[in-house]
Write a structure and sequence with these properties.
Blueprint: H1 2-31, H2 33-42, H3 47-54, H4 68-79, H5 82-86, H6 88-96, H7 100-124, H8 131-136, H9 144-177, E1 188-189, E2 199-200, H10 202-217, H11 219-247, H12 251-254, H13 263-274, H14 281-285, H15 294-323, H16 334-341, H17 345-379, H18 398-414, H19 417-447, H20 452-475, H21 481-499, H22 516-530, H23 534-565, H24 576-588
Antiparallel strand pairs: 1-2
Helix pairs in contact: 2-23, 3-24, 4-11, 4-15, 4-17, 6-13, 7-13, 7-15, 7-19, 7-22, 9-10, 9-17, 9-18, 9-19, 9-23, 10-17, 10-18, 11-15, 11-17, 16-17, 17-18, 19-20, 19-22, 19-23, 20-21, 20-22
Length: 589
């Protein structure tokens, strides 16, 4: 009996001892956080290492099957549908009135400037990480890893939340296709849940899961499907624009309270909200490892998709306001209801079907991009490394695609659009602000070999002036605030342009007229961020605290251990000559 008891307790004791050892190691790891943070801040990745050593943590390479028109279709498909069908109605009704099309112009200008920054980065650093990789490789010995991680986490947040919200809009338009007047018909209400989370949307969940499986199979087939849907979608947009202009009247633009019933403030506030519509063009930059000729295809695809989408957005918003006075525009299934108002009941069903298809295309591209972001963050070991694995036969980041697909489906089941739309905008604007700062720093410090203090001081003064201008606008305090900070912003940019030399890249496309486009992008992103509501910043602050805590408790130690292992798991292909050949081939492409 004593022998049996001894044999039973022995495994328990060994299990307890093992658990105690693991816990002790974790406590020791936490105690090393300050030391490892210093090491992380003094370390830096080069583009060569990012393109070779870090990329090979994924195992297999992603397959280069896409051309420039695939990239442009992905960018257009990712944006079309999200903005017009989801945000136009609420913004026109509550914020901007008939001048909602001007809000799209302002937001489009800011997106175009940001896309130019993305285009230069994507050519010089052709990896799948987008803003995460650009920031990670730019700030050198300063705070580059945390800034890159912070941007990457916010990009993933905006993707998951926006995809969930857009998937729920798919259900609304699909129900209108079949003649349902109430957009909530196909949802299940659950009493007892908090308002905004009490309408379960199973069609949205089914759509997200179906697209997830499609993206796991192949990038090229997914791109071909998106190309077909995008071509059809552009034709469909043309039908709505022509019908709106032919059947609308200019009287609706000035009745009942003029073209801008909420004033210039309403137009700019609307621009910040519709900026949600431009989420998607940065997805094109995440396809850099799957493009056959990245040096030429990436700038064409990224910038071209923003220009095409901006024009279509403005024309669509204008056609809507020509058909229906702004105070009669509905916030749900906006365009379907507008066609009913002009007596085109049959067109309402067609619009519902076309909008549903457009939302599917935008979801497909956004989910394609979000998986690439998570894959590259996993390569850096800032999240568990299994999320970085690329399937050898399909050439897709399978684990990242499945994980984010499940997250998106879970949120789409509960969460309503109004809860997340402004939080999405603030995350997007912040990331684009960081990318513009990084481009100026890279061009003037890393490429032109100027002292970093001058550029950092310029960026600080520029951001401070932009914040001063934005606060003066928001709170309407002193009349002299706007001209003072406006003139100071222009003066700061002009003096920096005159005093500090800038060298353009020798290979590939680079932004002209630096630093003006990137500096204006910084100014506009700051301005649009400050127009958002207080609760957006409160929710964003909670998210920022959470991801910072995760970085301190997990990311610092994981990346430190991965680098200490050196030639262990990171070097899937140990031949440095093969790695350099891959880099050379990529640059030649």
């Amino acid at each position: 009996m004593a022998t049996t008891t001894s044999q039973t307790t022995a495994p328990r004791n060994s299990t307890t001892a093992a658990a105690s050892i693991c816990f002790s190691k974790y406590l020791h790891s936490l105690s090393q956080t300050p030391h490892r943070l210093r090491r992380r801040m003094l370390a830096t990745w080069t583009p060569d290492e990012e393109l070779n050593q870090v990329r090979q943590r994924s195992g297999a390479d992603m397959k280069r099957k896409l051309k420039w028109y695939d990239l442009m279709a992905l960018g257009v498909g990712g944006m079309l549908g999200v903005g017009v069908f989801v945000t136009t109605g609420p913004v026109a009704h509550q914020t901007a009135g008939p001048s909602v099309f001007i809000s799209y112009i302002v937001a489009g200008m800011s997106a175009l400037l940001s896309s130019l920054c993305y285009a230069e980065f994507s050519v010089q650093i052709p990896v799948a990480g987008g803003a995460f990789s650009y920031l990670r490789l730019t700030f050198g010995t300063y705070i580059r890893e945390f800034v890159g991680y912070f941007a990457g986490a916010n990009i993933l947040m905006e993707y998951v939340l926006s995809n969930a919200a857009v998937a729920r809009s798919f259900t609304e338009y699909l129900s209108s296709t079949f003649g349902e007047n109430d957009p909530r018909t196909w949802r299940v209400e659950v009493n007892g849940l908090v308002k905004g989370y009490d309408m379960l949307d199973f069609p949205a969940v089914a759509l997200v899961l179906l697209l997830t499986l499609c993206l796991c199979h192949s990038t090229k087939e997914s791109s071909l499907l998106n190309l077909i849907m995008t071509v059809f979608h552009v034709v469909f947009f043309g039908f709505i624009i022509i019908a709106g202009f032919c059947n609308g009247t200019s009287k609706n633009l000035v009745k009942p309270k003029g073209i801008a019933p909420y004033g210039v403030r309403g137009v700019l506030d609307g621009a910040a909200r519709v900026y949600f519509s431009y989420i998607g063009y940065d997805s094109a930059s995440t396809m850099a490892e799957e493009i056959q000729s990245p040096l030429t295809s990436l700038p064409i695809g990224i910038v071209g998709s923003v220009v095409i989408t901006s024009v279509l957005y403005c024309l669509m918003a204008l056609s809507l306001c020509l058909m229906v006075p702004y105070n009669k525009i509905t916030e749900k299934v906006t365009f379907s209801t507008a066609f009913k108002e002009i007596g085109w009941g049959w067109a309402s069903n067609v619009v519902g079907a076309g909008a549903s298809l457009g939302i599917v295309a935008s979801l497909l591209v956004a989910m394609l991009g979000q998986a690439r972001y998570l894959c590259v963050i996993g390569r850096a070991r800032l999240v568990p490394s299994w999320l970085a694995k690329v399937h050898p036969s399909t050439g897709t980041p399978l684990n990242a695609t499945l994980f984010l697909g499940l997250c998106t489906a879970s949120i789409a089941l509960f969460t309503d659009l109004e809860i997340v739309i402004e939080m999405i905008s603030i995350g997007t604007l912040l990331v684009f602000y960081l990318v513009a700062n990084a481009l100026i720093y890279r061009r003037y410090v890393i490429i032109s070999n100027n002292p970093p203090f001058q550029t950092l001081l310029f960026l600080f003064l520029l951001s401070s002036s932009a914040i001063g201008f934005s606060m003066s606008w928001k709170f309407q305090q002193q009349w002299w605030g706007l001209p003072l900070f406006g003139v100071s912003t222009v003066t700061i940019i002009a003096f920096f342009n005159y005093a500090i030399p800038c060298v353009r890249h020798q290979i590939g496309w680079s932004m002209p007229f630096m630093p003006w486009p990137a500096a204006l992008s910084i100014f506009l992103n700051v301005f649009l961020m400050t127009t958002l509501k207080k609760f957006s910043f409160e929710r964003f602050a909670i998210w920022a605290c959470f991801i910072t805590l995760f970085y301190l408790l997990y990311g610092v130690h994981s990346t430190y251990q991965a680098e200490e292992m050196g030639s262990g798991e990171d070097e899937v292909n140990p031949s440095s000559a093969v790695q350099q050949t891959k880099l050379d081939n990529m640059q030649v492409l």
